[in-house]
From TrEMBL:
Protein family per UniProt: Belongs to the bacterial ribosomal protein bL31 family. Type B subfamily.
Keyword annotations from UniProtKB, A to Z: Ribonucleoprotein, Ribosomal protein
A single GO molecular function term of this UniProt record: structural constituent of ribosome
PROSITE patterns recorded: RIBOSOMAL_L31
Domain of life: Bacteria
Gene3D superfamilies given in the database record: Ribosomal protein L31 (4.10.830.30)
The protein's name: Large ribosomal subunit protein bL31B
The protein's assembly and partners: Part of the 50S ribosomal subunit.
Amino acid sequence: MKKGIHPENYRPVVFKDMSNEDIFITRSTIATKETIEIDGVTYPLCKVEISSTSHPFFTGKAKLVDTAGRVDKFMNRYGDRKKK
């Protein structure tokens, strides 16, 4: 590996899947403002909308994750074109 191109500030960070409340700890350099305490240790917290524990490809279950109402927004804007 080339020297001087990789960050030096790797630390344990908690990633929390907001769709199923699953958490996992890994090393990262991500900057976070929130923290969480697990087993008496305080970690930086990064909230994610989807992870391998909730993604249909990894779970084998097809489910629609619509956190921002994007499907409803699309249907309101374009609707069913065949009715007109």
